[in-house]
Amino acid sequence: MVVLTSKVPISVVPSVEASFEPYIPSSEPLALVPQEPAVIAEVPPLVVATNIAIVRDRATALKVVRYDKENFDQFKEETLAQHQSLMRSYDKKKPTLLSYQANLKKEDLAYFTEIKAAKEERERLDIYIHQLKVKQEQRRVEARSKFQDLEKLNSEVALISKMSNQVT
């Protein structure tokens, strides 16, 4: 964390003089020097102190980063070792699990086929039960009809008996 000791931002320099005449050393040709104006700035002591504090903070930060990098490298190695161990374990268990999965699929198909056959059998039995109930109801209707016929005959016999008793 960088803490500035000045309330003036570092990018603001209070004493600046502009010079539009470029400084050209005598050993270099004039054509190689850019023709832009140069700015000469005087850096106050507060800015220099701030820059020194920033450099110290950066040095401390670099030490922390180096320490964090060492921890990260150790963490990375441990994580890589754990990952490799898990992958080896997975590779050992994978064929067994795949075989087990294939067996489960076969069993599932067999159960599905058996369930389908049982449902078809149940449908056939439901139809048969329905047919039996229809026949049972038809027999009951016939029995009621026969019982009514019998009662009618009994009443006729009783009437004939009564009439024959009267004749004799």
Structural class estimated from helices and strands = mainly alpha
Strand order of the largest sheet: 1-2
**Quick one: how many beta strands?**
2
* CA-CA gap between termini: 140 Å
The largest pleated sheet is described as: 2 strands, antiparallel
Succession of helices and strands: EEH
Overall spatial form: rod-shaped
Helix content: over 70%
Mean pLDDT: 76
| Assembly level | single chain
Low-confidence regions:
1-20
How much β-strand is present in the residues?
5-15%
C-alpha-based Rg, rounded: 55 Å
Count of alpha and pi helical runs? 1
TL;DR?
With 168 residues, this protein is mostly helical. The chain contains one helix and two strands, in the order ββα. Keywords: Coiled coil.
Describe this structure in words.
The chain is mostly helical and 168 residues long. 73% of the residues lie in helices and 6% in strands. The protein has a domain at 41-156. The chain contains one helix and two strands. A two-stranded antiparallel sheet has the order 1-2. The protein is rod-shaped, with a radius of gyration of 55 Å.
Name the descriptors.
mainly alpha; 168 residues; coiled coil; 2 strands; two-stranded antiparallel ribbon
